[in-house]
Amino acid sequence: MAIKLLILGLLMERDRHPYEIRQTMKERNWHVAFKVRDGSLYYAVDQLRQDGLIEAAEIIPSQGDNRPDKRIYRITEKGNEAFLDLLYAQFGQTAVPFHPLFPGLPFVRRGEMEKVAELMEKQLADCEARIAKLSAVLEMKHAYLPRGAIHMIQGIIRFSETELDWLNDMLDDVRSGKMAEPGYDPRGAEGCSGAADTNEVE
Q1: Calpha distance 41→43 (Å, rounded)
Q2: pLDDT digits (tens, 9 = 90+) for 30-60
Q3: pTM surpassing 0.85?
């Protein structure tokens, strides 16, 4: 849903080639928040075209025999209606925050703490770089960005600042050895063979 919303939104601004759509996302630093692969983008463009939501506004003949013609796309009236449906649907979604470290954390004590610390330091460095880059973008472009775009960037920065605190807390536990501790097991401690704690992650 999100990739189609992004494509249609950009085509509402003006006609674009898929490559230009991709470059615009990068120029606006959207790739920091939205992980869009080139293959996914071109596939979504093709789906939108098949559904009549976009159409070729201009076809530029290629200069080589083996290269496809360059198609500049525009949004259709049907696409405008679909854009609003996607926009409202996106605002209606709720989600639990997710981080790439989450699936590994229940098992992190089984890893080598030196290696875990090294990887967490890399996560910290990436997070700090993201905050610095987007803060600079916001300062530089604040005067002429749409209000919604400003809030998007501010949201990423604030989430990243919270992530930074969380990563630092975990790194402290890794360095102190606490992350390698097994934790409390009521079955082992009490010699009980009953059901596991309902809060246990399986």
Answers
A1: 5
A2: 888 888 888 899 999 999 999 999 999 998 8
A3: no
Asked whether residue 153 is domain-assigned, the answer is: yes
The parts of the chain modelled with pLDDT lower than 50 are: 190-202
- Residue positions counted in the chain: 202
Show Cβ contacts of residue 72 under 8 Å, excluding neighbours closer than 6 positions: 15, 16, 17, 56, 57, 58, 59, 60
Tokens describing residue 153? 């960037």
Does residue 122 share a domain with residue 80? no
Residue 180: CA count within 13 A, CB half-sphere: 11
Is 196 within 8 Å of 129 (Cβ atoms)? no
Residue for token digits 């559904």?
Answer: 51
Domain count, the chain: 2
